């Protein structure tokens, strides 16, 4: 069953704006990861945040993790049309490298 | 590195035919995962291997599905006989640590 649930399911913004996507999960995690999927392609790993971390940055990406609320957010700053894709959170529950993926957020960035 | 390689990229077959999907993981990765992605069900884990041994096949939908990993550089997912509801994009992913690297997928259409 899917543990990670993304919110919103779809998001449309203008280029230059920030995009925020949220992910909730149900049971304790070892780490949480975010992936990106361009149309017709495989998923690409973006960033990983461990259960003992609260915030992590990578370029224009900022991820936060609140283990008390079992939630995470992905912020993309100064979005570009090329950021148009689906974004998935994936939770690692320390079960042999297996990840549980959410349903994804479809982001459209309009030029 | 060439990344995870999948073949074929597209497969169109008739109901009742056998379908074999192939995957070459990234060299040195000891985990291999097979996923299925549809609009209705999202991304589903079918089966995963560690050091060529199947660890969890609880996601395999029916006995019509089987997967093998005869060596560290090759895996197959077979559907026999295929049905229209098997139409989906099938992804193979490999990992050495917790981040997974996805192949480009095989788009299967069963008519």
What does this structure look like?
The complex is a heterodimer of chains A (111) and B (111). With 111 residues, chain A is mainly beta. Chain A has no helices and eleven strands. In chain A, strands 2, 4, 5, 9, 10 and 11 form a six-stranded mixed beta sheet that branches. In chain A, strands 1-3-8-7-6 form a five-stranded antiparallel beta sheet, with no helix packed on it. The termini of chain A are far apart. The relative contact order of chain A is 0.35. The model of chain B has no long low-confidence stretch (mean pLDDT 95). Chain B has strands spanning 5-7, 10-13, 19-24, 31-38, 42-50, 53-56, 65-71, 74-79, 88-95, 101-102, 106-110. In chain B, the strands form two sheets. In chain B, strands 2, 4, 5, 6, 9, 10 and 11 form a seven-stranded mixed beta sheet that branches. Chain B has a four-stranded antiparallel beta sheet with strand order 1-3-8-7, with no helix packed on it. The radius of gyration of chain B is 13 Å and the shape is globular. Chain B is 0% helix and 56% strand. Chain B has 111 residues and is mostly beta strands. Chain B contains no helices and eleven strands. Chain A binds chain B through residues 2, 30-31, 33, 40-45, 48, 88, 90, 92, 96-104, and chain B through 4, 31, 33, 42-43, 45, 48, 50, 55-56, 91, 93, 95, 97-105.
